[in-house]
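Progress against Task 2.4 (sequence-to-structure conversion) is shown through the following example record, which the project officer requested during the mid-term review.
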Amino acid sequence: MSAKKESFFWTSYSDLMTSLFFMMLVLFVLTVVLLNKKMIEIKRITDATQEQIDKIKEIEQATKDIDPTYFEYNEGHKKHILKVNVNFPTGIANINSIDESTQQKLNEAGKVIQNLIEQKTKEYGIQYLLVIEGQASKDSWGEENNYKLSYERALSLRNFWRDNRLDFGNNCEVLISGTGTGGAMRERDEKRNQRFLIHIIPKPGIIEASKEQMN
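Structure tokens generated for the chain above:
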């Protein structure tokens, strides 16, 4: 009788261990499968994120590569310097006070900006922020008045482009600013500070990854 009980115990114990082993094996396989799927998902997200980062860099580079005939990009300050020498009479902000040759160059520079924004907004499906920053030279006009003057000059340039039917589109927000005799990137020759700095800032927003990356 004792031998039968002992045999039954070991048989039951063996069945239990077999069942436990089978359960552990199933759990192990399931864990490996889930981990593998998770790793694939992480890689997909990482690849998609890198693709988006690369796209943002591509957009920024495309903005920097604007026509060098009219613009010079300053990497340190992330600004475009309008390479048209604009010599306003002291205390005057009206664009019409400068010569026609300079006005023509300003008009051509505006066309360059318009074409860039129109092309890139279609190509990348993004928006732009265009900041027209006016600067002024230090003179007897006074520091406070020069802030107002530099703003009015920037506004005059915006109106000049608008009057010449230059439209930067619904995907471009235009801001007008004046830094007077302050601001960055000032020249030692004060007359050269009667100029405009142009900020062409891409706003990528949400850049979707390619369909291959999303699937």
